Amino acid sequence: MKKALITGITGQDGSYLAEFLIQKGYQVHGIVRRNSTLFRSRIDHLHTVDESETSSFLLHYGDSSDGTNIARLIHQIRPDEIYNLAAQSHVRISFDMPIYTVDVDALGTLRLLEILRSIDWPTKFYQASSSEMYGQTTVATQNEETPFHPRSPYACAKVYSHYQTVNYRDSYDMFACSGILFNHESPRRGENFVTRKITKAVAEIKKGLRDTVVLGNLDARRDWGYAPEYIEAMWMMLQQEKPDDYVIATGEAHSVREFLAEAFGCVGLNWEDHVTFDEKFLRPVDVDMLCGDASKAKAKLGWEPRTKFKQLVQLMVDADMAALEQGQ
Ligand code: NAP
Ligand code: G4F
Protein backbone atom coordinates (compact mmCIF):
# COMPACT_ATOMS: atom_id res chain seq x y z
CA MET A 1 0.00 0.00 0.00
CA LYS A 2 1.41 3.42 -1.01
CA LYS A 3 1.67 5.98 1.77
CA ALA A 4 0.83 9.66 1.31
CA LEU A 5 1.48 12.39 3.85
CA ILE A 6 -0.71 15.50 3.62
CA THR A 7 0.04 18.73 5.47
CA GLY A 8 -3.09 20.89 5.68
CA ILE A 9 -5.38 17.85 5.66
CA THR A 10 -8.12 19.68 7.59
CA GLY A 11 -8.42 22.34 4.88
CA GLN A 12 -10.64 22.38 1.79
CA ASP A 13 -8.09 20.76 -0.53
CA GLY A 14 -6.59 18.43 2.09
CA SER A 15 -9.98 16.89 2.82
CA TYR A 16 -10.79 16.24 -0.86
CA LEU A 17 -7.29 14.92 -1.51
CA ALA A 18 -7.50 12.53 1.45
CA GLU A 19 -10.80 11.10 0.15
CA PHE A 20 -9.36 10.76 -3.36
CA LEU A 21 -6.18 8.98 -2.23
CA ILE A 22 -8.03 6.58 0.09
CA GLN A 23 -10.20 5.61 -2.89
CA LYS A 24 -7.02 4.99 -4.89
CA GLY A 25 -5.88 2.54 -2.19
CA TYR A 26 -3.34 4.75 -0.42
CA GLN A 27 -2.72 4.82 3.28
CA VAL A 28 -3.25 8.51 4.05
CA HIS A 29 -1.40 10.22 6.89
CA GLY A 30 -2.41 13.75 7.81
CA ILE A 31 -0.75 16.37 9.98
CA VAL A 32 -3.18 18.22 12.24
CA ARG A 33 -2.56 21.12 14.59
CA ARG A 34 -3.34 20.81 18.23
CA ASN A 35 -6.55 22.75 18.96
CA SER A 36 -8.68 23.09 22.05
CA THR A 37 -11.45 21.10 20.33
CA LEU A 38 -11.30 17.91 18.28
CA PHE A 39 -13.87 19.29 15.82
CA ARG A 40 -12.49 18.85 12.29
CA SER A 41 -15.61 19.18 10.18
CA ARG A 42 -14.06 18.50 6.76
CA ILE A 43 -12.43 15.19 7.67
CA ASP A 44 -14.52 13.83 10.54
CA HIS A 45 -16.30 11.46 8.12
CA LEU A 46 -12.97 9.81 7.20
CA HIS A 47 -12.24 8.63 10.73
CA THR A 48 -12.36 4.91 11.32
CA VAL A 49 -12.19 3.05 14.61
CA ASP A 50 -9.07 1.37 13.25
CA GLU A 51 -6.06 3.32 14.47
CA SER A 52 -3.65 0.44 13.83
CA GLU A 53 -0.67 0.66 11.47
CA THR A 54 -2.81 -0.79 8.65
CA SER A 55 -5.59 1.78 8.87
CA SER A 56 -6.23 3.73 5.65
CA PHE A 57 -6.41 7.08 7.50
CA LEU A 58 -4.11 8.20 10.30
CA LEU A 59 -3.63 11.63 11.87
CA HIS A 60 -0.55 13.01 13.61
CA TYR A 61 -0.06 16.20 15.58
CA GLY A 62 2.33 18.65 13.98
CA ASP A 63 2.89 22.18 12.77
CA SER A 64 4.74 23.57 9.75
CA SER A 65 6.62 25.92 12.06
CA ASP A 66 8.18 22.98 13.95
CA GLY A 67 10.76 21.27 11.74
CA THR A 68 11.91 18.70 14.30
CA ASN A 69 8.40 17.39 14.76
CA ILE A 70 7.84 17.17 10.98
CA ALA A 71 11.19 15.39 10.54
CA ARG A 72 10.29 12.82 13.19
CA LEU A 73 6.93 12.17 11.52
CA ILE A 74 8.47 11.76 8.07
CA HIS A 75 11.03 9.25 9.38
CA GLN A 76 8.32 7.37 11.24
CA ILE A 77 5.81 7.26 8.34
CA ARG A 78 8.27 6.92 5.41
CA PRO A 79 5.76 8.34 2.89
CA ASP A 80 5.98 7.69 -0.86
CA GLU A 81 4.33 11.03 -1.62
CA ILE A 82 4.12 14.28 0.35
CA TYR A 83 1.53 16.94 -0.43
CA ASN A 84 2.44 20.26 1.22
CA LEU A 85 -0.93 22.02 1.47
CA ALA A 86 -0.54 23.62 4.91
CA ALA A 87 -0.66 27.40 4.79
CA GLN A 88 -2.04 30.56 6.29
CA SER A 89 -3.98 30.82 3.04
CA HIS A 90 -5.97 34.05 3.45
CA VAL A 91 -4.45 36.87 1.38
CA ARG A 92 -5.94 39.82 3.32
CA ILE A 93 -5.05 38.30 6.68
CA SER A 94 -1.46 37.90 5.45
CA PHE A 95 -1.20 41.72 5.57
CA ASP A 96 -2.13 41.55 9.28
CA MET A 97 0.16 38.59 10.05
CA PRO A 98 3.06 38.83 7.57
CA ILE A 99 5.76 37.26 9.77
CA TYR A 100 3.60 34.30 10.74
CA THR A 101 2.44 33.84 7.14
CA VAL A 102 6.03 33.77 5.87
CA ASP A 103 7.10 31.39 8.64
CA VAL A 104 4.43 28.86 7.69
CA ASP A 105 4.02 29.42 3.94
CA ALA A 106 7.67 30.00 3.00
CA LEU A 107 9.94 28.58 5.72
CA GLY A 108 7.49 25.72 6.30
CA THR A 109 8.21 24.53 2.75
CA LEU A 110 11.96 24.96 3.17
CA ARG A 111 11.86 22.92 6.39
CA LEU A 112 10.17 20.09 4.50
CA LEU A 113 12.56 20.24 1.55
CA GLU A 114 15.57 20.16 3.90
CA ILE A 115 14.19 17.03 5.59
CA LEU A 116 13.58 15.37 2.21
CA ARG A 117 17.15 16.12 1.11
CA SER A 118 18.49 13.86 3.85
CA ILE A 119 16.14 10.85 3.72
CA ASP A 120 17.28 7.53 2.25
CA TRP A 121 14.17 6.46 0.32
CA PRO A 122 12.55 8.00 -2.79
CA THR A 123 9.70 10.40 -1.99
CA LYS A 124 7.73 12.61 -4.33
CA PHE A 125 6.89 16.14 -3.21
CA TYR A 126 4.00 18.41 -4.20
CA GLN A 127 4.05 22.12 -3.35
CA ALA A 128 0.76 24.05 -3.28
CA SER A 129 1.70 27.15 -5.26
CA SER A 130 -0.76 29.84 -6.19
CA SER A 131 -1.90 32.10 -9.02
CA GLU A 132 -1.52 34.94 -6.49
CA MET A 133 2.20 34.74 -7.40
CA TYR A 134 1.36 36.49 -10.72
CA GLY A 135 -0.09 39.44 -8.78
CA GLN A 136 -0.11 42.62 -10.82
CA THR A 137 0.45 40.83 -14.08
CA THR A 138 0.06 42.55 -17.44
CA VAL A 139 -0.31 39.25 -19.29
CA ALA A 140 -3.91 38.38 -20.27
CA THR A 141 -3.69 34.64 -19.50
CA GLN A 142 -0.94 33.37 -17.24
CA ASN A 143 1.03 30.18 -17.82
CA GLU A 144 4.19 28.53 -16.41
CA GLU A 145 6.41 31.08 -18.22
CA THR A 146 4.60 34.23 -17.03
CA PRO A 147 6.73 36.40 -14.68
CA PHE A 148 5.61 36.72 -11.07
CA HIS A 149 4.72 40.08 -9.50
CA PRO A 150 3.42 39.18 -6.00
CA ARG A 151 1.19 41.73 -4.22
CA SER A 152 0.84 40.42 -0.64
CA PRO A 153 2.93 38.79 2.10
CA TYR A 154 1.09 35.56 1.22
CA ALA A 155 2.02 35.79 -2.46
CA CYS A 156 5.66 36.65 -1.66
CA ALA A 157 5.85 33.59 0.61
CA LYS A 158 4.37 31.38 -2.12
CA VAL A 159 6.88 32.71 -4.69
CA TYR A 160 9.69 31.81 -2.27
CA SER A 161 8.32 28.28 -1.83
CA HIS A 162 7.87 27.86 -5.57
CA TYR A 163 11.48 28.80 -6.31
CA GLN A 164 12.82 26.64 -3.47
CA THR A 165 10.86 23.68 -4.83
CA VAL A 166 12.40 24.22 -8.28
CA ASN A 167 15.82 24.84 -6.72
CA TYR A 168 15.78 21.62 -4.67
CA ARG A 169 14.63 19.66 -7.71
CA ASP A 170 17.50 21.04 -9.79
CA SER A 171 20.12 20.90 -7.05
CA TYR A 172 19.43 17.49 -5.52
CA ASP A 173 17.57 15.66 -8.28
CA MET A 174 14.45 15.49 -6.14
CA PHE A 175 11.02 14.58 -7.50
CA ALA A 176 9.45 17.91 -6.53
CA CYS A 177 6.55 19.58 -8.35
CA SER A 178 4.98 22.99 -7.97
CA GLY A 179 1.30 23.16 -8.87
CA ILE A 180 0.31 26.75 -9.70
CA LEU A 181 -3.37 26.50 -8.92
CA PHE A 182 -5.85 29.26 -9.66
CA ASN A 183 -8.75 29.87 -7.26
CA HIS A 184 -10.77 26.73 -6.61
CA GLU A 185 -13.91 26.62 -4.56
CA SER A 186 -16.47 24.20 -3.18
CA PRO A 187 -19.03 23.86 -0.40
CA ARG A 188 -16.01 23.17 1.84
CA ARG A 189 -14.40 26.53 1.06
CA GLY A 190 -13.58 28.58 4.17
CA GLU A 191 -16.40 30.96 5.02
CA ASN A 192 -14.22 34.09 4.82
CA PHE A 193 -13.22 33.62 1.17
CA VAL A 194 -15.41 35.68 -1.12
CA THR A 195 -17.26 32.89 -2.99
CA ARG A 196 -18.35 31.00 0.12
CA LYS A 197 -19.06 34.22 1.99
CA ILE A 198 -21.48 35.09 -0.82
CA THR A 199 -23.17 31.68 -1.22
CA LYS A 200 -23.66 31.30 2.54
CA ALA A 201 -25.15 34.80 2.71
CA VAL A 202 -27.42 34.08 -0.28
CA ALA A 203 -28.84 31.03 1.52
CA GLU A 204 -29.33 32.92 4.79
CA ILE A 205 -30.95 35.91 3.04
CA LYS A 206 -33.27 33.64 1.07
CA LYS A 207 -34.30 31.92 4.32
CA GLY A 208 -34.97 35.31 5.94
CA LEU A 209 -32.19 34.95 8.53
CA ARG A 210 -30.47 38.19 7.48
CA ASP A 211 -30.78 40.88 4.84
CA THR A 212 -27.29 41.94 3.76
CA VAL A 213 -23.74 40.81 3.11
CA VAL A 214 -20.83 43.23 3.54
CA LEU A 215 -18.03 43.05 0.97
CA GLY A 216 -14.96 44.91 -0.32
CA ASN A 217 -13.66 45.11 -3.89
CA LEU A 218 -16.25 43.86 -6.37
CA ASP A 219 -14.18 44.59 -9.50
CA ALA A 220 -11.49 41.94 -8.97
CA ARG A 221 -11.60 39.13 -11.53
CA ARG A 222 -10.69 35.56 -10.68
CA ASP A 223 -10.47 32.24 -12.52
CA TRP A 224 -12.69 30.09 -10.29
CA GLY A 225 -12.73 26.29 -10.64
CA TYR A 226 -14.09 23.35 -8.64
CA ALA A 227 -11.75 22.09 -5.90
CA PRO A 228 -12.32 18.28 -6.22
CA GLU A 229 -11.05 18.48 -9.83
CA TYR A 230 -7.96 20.45 -8.80
CA ILE A 231 -6.74 17.92 -6.24
CA GLU A 232 -6.81 15.26 -8.99
CA ALA A 233 -4.25 17.38 -10.85
CA MET A 234 -1.97 17.37 -7.78
CA TRP A 235 -1.92 13.59 -7.78
CA MET A 236 -1.44 13.42 -11.57
CA MET A 237 1.68 15.61 -11.31
CA LEU A 238 3.30 13.09 -8.97
CA GLN A 239 2.50 10.14 -11.27
CA GLN A 240 4.55 11.51 -14.20
CA GLU A 241 7.93 10.14 -15.21
CA LYS A 242 9.61 13.49 -14.54
CA PRO A 243 8.81 16.22 -12.01
CA ASP A 244 7.61 19.54 -13.42
CA ASP A 245 5.48 22.59 -12.67
CA TYR A 246 1.94 23.06 -13.96
CA VAL A 247 -0.74 25.75 -14.09
CA ILE A 248 -4.18 24.43 -13.15
CA ALA A 249 -7.07 26.72 -14.13
CA THR A 250 -10.32 26.96 -16.11
CA GLY A 251 -9.19 29.72 -18.51
CA GLU A 252 -12.29 31.80 -17.70
CA ALA A 253 -12.30 34.87 -15.44
CA HIS A 254 -15.27 36.52 -13.74
CA SER A 255 -15.58 39.51 -11.43
CA VAL A 256 -16.83 39.32 -7.85
CA ARG A 257 -19.80 41.35 -9.13
CA GLU A 258 -20.57 38.63 -11.70
CA PHE A 259 -20.32 35.98 -8.98
CA LEU A 260 -22.82 37.99 -6.90
CA ALA A 261 -25.29 38.32 -9.80
CA GLU A 262 -25.10 34.61 -10.53
CA ALA A 263 -25.40 33.50 -6.87
CA PHE A 264 -28.32 35.78 -5.97
CA GLY A 265 -29.91 34.87 -9.32
CA CYS A 266 -29.89 31.18 -8.29
CA VAL A 267 -32.56 31.99 -5.66
CA GLY A 268 -34.42 34.66 -7.65
CA LEU A 269 -32.96 37.69 -5.81
CA ASN A 270 -31.23 40.86 -7.06
CA TRP A 271 -27.77 41.21 -5.46
CA GLU A 272 -27.88 45.02 -5.51
CA ASP A 273 -30.67 44.93 -2.90
CA HIS A 274 -28.50 43.00 -0.42
CA VAL A 275 -24.82 44.00 -0.74
CA THR A 276 -23.15 46.75 1.25
CA PHE A 277 -19.53 47.93 1.29
CA ASP A 278 -16.99 48.14 4.11
CA GLU A 279 -13.41 49.21 3.47
CA LYS A 280 -12.20 46.77 6.11
CA PHE A 281 -12.55 44.08 3.44
CA LEU A 282 -10.18 45.90 1.08
CA ARG A 283 -6.47 44.99 0.93
CA PRO A 284 -3.62 47.56 0.86
CA VAL A 285 -3.18 46.36 -2.74
CA ASP A 286 -5.35 43.85 -4.54
CA VAL A 287 -4.80 41.64 -7.56
CA ASP A 288 -7.05 42.95 -10.33
CA MET A 289 -7.25 40.03 -12.69
CA LEU A 290 -6.15 36.39 -12.80
CA CYS A 291 -6.93 34.01 -15.65
CA GLY A 292 -4.94 30.83 -16.18
CA ASP A 293 -3.77 28.97 -19.26
CA ALA A 294 -3.67 25.26 -18.34
CA SER A 295 -2.67 23.99 -21.80
CA LYS A 296 0.48 22.31 -20.46
CA ALA A 297 -1.56 20.35 -17.89
CA LYS A 298 -3.99 19.31 -20.63
CA ALA A 299 -1.21 18.18 -22.98
CA LYS A 300 1.04 16.42 -20.45
CA LEU A 301 -1.26 15.30 -17.63
CA GLY A 302 -4.48 14.91 -19.61
CA TRP A 303 -6.11 17.22 -17.01
CA GLU A 304 -9.03 19.45 -17.94
CA PRO A 305 -11.58 21.33 -15.81
CA ARG A 306 -15.10 19.89 -16.02
CA THR A 307 -17.23 22.23 -13.90
CA LYS A 308 -18.10 25.59 -15.46
CA PHE A 309 -18.59 28.88 -13.60
CA LYS A 310 -22.42 28.76 -13.51
CA GLN A 311 -22.43 25.14 -12.31
CA LEU A 312 -19.91 25.97 -9.60
CA VAL A 313 -21.99 28.86 -8.27
CA GLN A 314 -25.17 26.77 -8.39
CA LEU A 315 -23.67 23.81 -6.53
CA MET A 316 -22.27 26.08 -3.81
CA VAL A 317 -25.60 27.89 -3.34
CA ASP A 318 -27.46 24.55 -3.32
CA ALA A 319 -25.09 23.15 -0.68
CA ASP A 320 -25.52 26.19 1.58
CA MET A 321 -29.32 26.05 1.16
CA ALA A 322 -29.31 22.31 1.96
CA ALA A 323 -27.08 22.82 5.01
CA LEU A 324 -29.53 25.39 6.38
CA GLU A 325 -32.46 23.07 5.79
CA GLN A 326 -30.64 20.34 7.69
CA GLY A 327 -29.99 22.81 10.52
CA GLN A 328 -26.19 22.88 10.09
P1 NAP B 1 -7.33 26.10 3.69
O1 NAP B 1 -8.71 25.56 3.57
O2 NAP B 1 -7.11 27.42 4.31
O3 NAP B 1 -6.47 25.01 4.51
C1 NAP B 1 -5.20 25.30 5.02
C2 NAP B 1 -4.70 24.11 5.81
O4 NAP B 1 -3.40 24.42 6.34
C3 NAP B 1 -5.58 23.75 7.03
O5 NAP B 1 -5.58 22.36 7.19
C4 NAP B 1 -4.83 24.41 8.19
O6 NAP B 1 -5.06 23.79 9.44
C5 NAP B 1 -3.39 24.15 7.73
N1 NAP B 1 -2.43 24.99 8.42
C6 NAP B 1 -2.43 26.33 8.55
N2 NAP B 1 -1.36 26.74 9.27
C7 NAP B 1 -0.67 25.62 9.61
C8 NAP B 1 0.49 25.36 10.38
N3 NAP B 1 1.18 26.36 10.95
N4 NAP B 1 0.91 24.09 10.51
C9 NAP B 1 0.23 23.06 9.97
N5 NAP B 1 -0.92 23.24 9.25
C10 NAP B 1 -1.35 24.50 9.09
O7 NAP B 1 -6.60 26.13 2.27
P2 NAP B 1 -7.00 25.37 0.91
O8 NAP B 1 -7.92 26.23 0.14
O9 NAP B 1 -7.34 23.97 1.20
O10 NAP B 1 -5.61 25.43 0.14
C11 NAP B 1 -4.63 24.41 0.28
C12 NAP B 1 -3.27 24.95 -0.14
O11 NAP B 1 -3.33 25.38 -1.49
C13 NAP B 1 -2.79 26.15 0.65
O12 NAP B 1 -1.38 26.06 0.74
C14 NAP B 1 -3.18 27.34 -0.21
O13 NAP B 1 -2.34 28.43 0.07
C15 NAP B 1 -2.97 26.76 -1.58
N6 NAP B 1 -3.79 27.31 -2.66
C16 NAP B 1 -5.14 27.36 -2.53
C17 NAP B 1 -5.91 27.83 -3.58
C18 NAP B 1 -7.42 27.89 -3.51
O14 NAP B 1 -8.03 28.57 -4.34
N7 NAP B 1 -8.05 27.16 -2.59
C19 NAP B 1 -5.28 28.24 -4.78
C20 NAP B 1 -3.90 28.16 -4.87
C21 NAP B 1 -3.15 27.67 -3.82
P3 NAP B 1 -6.27 24.27 10.42
O15 NAP B 1 -7.50 23.57 9.91
O16 NAP B 1 -5.80 23.79 11.74
O17 NAP B 1 -6.36 25.75 10.30
O1 G4F C 1 -11.81 34.85 -2.02
P1 G4F C 1 -10.58 35.66 -1.83
O2 G4F C 1 -10.18 35.99 -0.44
O3 G4F C 1 -9.43 34.88 -2.62
P2 G4F C 1 -7.99 35.33 -3.15
O4 G4F C 1 -7.50 36.55 -2.48
O5 G4F C 1 -8.07 35.36 -4.63
O6 G4F C 1 -7.08 34.12 -2.66
C1 G4F C 1 -7.50 32.77 -2.79
O7 G4F C 1 -7.08 32.27 -4.04
C2 G4F C 1 -5.64 32.20 -4.21
C3 G4F C 1 -5.39 31.66 -5.61
O8 G4F C 1 -5.32 32.73 -6.52
C4 G4F C 1 -5.07 31.31 -3.14
F1 G4F C 1 -3.73 31.20 -3.31
C5 G4F C 1 -5.38 31.87 -1.78
O9 G4F C 1 -4.89 30.97 -0.77
C6 G4F C 1 -6.90 31.98 -1.63
O10 G4F C 1 -7.43 30.67 -1.64
O11 G4F C 1 -10.72 37.05 -2.63
C7 G4F C 1 -11.02 37.11 -4.01
C8 G4F C 1 -11.30 38.56 -4.40
C9 G4F C 1 -10.22 39.54 -3.92
O12 G4F C 1 -9.93 40.45 -4.95
C10 G4F C 1 -10.89 40.28 -2.77
O13 G4F C 1 -10.43 41.61 -2.59
O14 G4F C 1 -12.52 38.97 -3.75
C11 G4F C 1 -12.33 40.25 -3.22
N1 G4F C 1 -13.29 40.46 -2.11
C12 G4F C 1 -14.27 41.40 -2.10
N2 G4F C 1 -14.92 41.38 -0.93
C13 G4F C 1 -13.31 39.81 -0.94
C14 G4F C 1 -14.35 40.38 -0.19
N3 G4F C 1 -12.55 38.78 -0.46
C15 G4F C 1 -12.84 38.31 0.78
N4 G4F C 1 -12.12 37.26 1.26
N5 G4F C 1 -13.84 38.85 1.55
C16 G4F C 1 -14.61 39.91 1.13
O15 G4F C 1 -15.49 40.39 1.84
UniProtKB/TrEMBL annotation:
It is an enzyme of class 4 (lyase). It catalyses: GDP-alpha-D-mannose = GDP-4-dehydro-alpha-D-rhamnose + H2O. The keyword Amino-acid biosynthesis does not apply. CDD domains: GDP_MD_SDR_e (cd05260). One of its GO terms (molecular function) is NADP+ binding. GO terms for biological process: 'de novo' GDP-L-fucose biosynthetic process. Its cofactor is NADP(+). Residues 5-316 form the NAD(P)-binding domain. Keywords: Lyase, NADP. SUPFAM superfamilies: NAD(P)-binding Rossmann-fold domains. Coiled coil: none annotated. Its EC number is 4.2.1.47. InterPro entries: GDP_Man_deHydtase, NAD(P)-bd_dom, NAD(P)-bd_dom_sf. The keyword ATP-binding does not apply. Belongs to the NAD(P)-dependent epimerase/dehydratase family. GDP-mannose 4,6-dehydratase subfamily. PANTHER family: GDP-MANNOSE 4,6 DEHYDRATASE (PTHR43715:SF1), GDP-MANNOSE 4,6-DEHYDRATASE (PTHR43715). NCBIfam families: gmd. Catalyzes the conversion of GDP-D-mannose to GDP-4-dehydro-6-deoxy-D-mannose. This is GDP-mannose 4,6-dehydratase. It comes from Candidatus Magasanikbacteria bacterium RIFCSPHIGHO2_02_FULL_47_14.
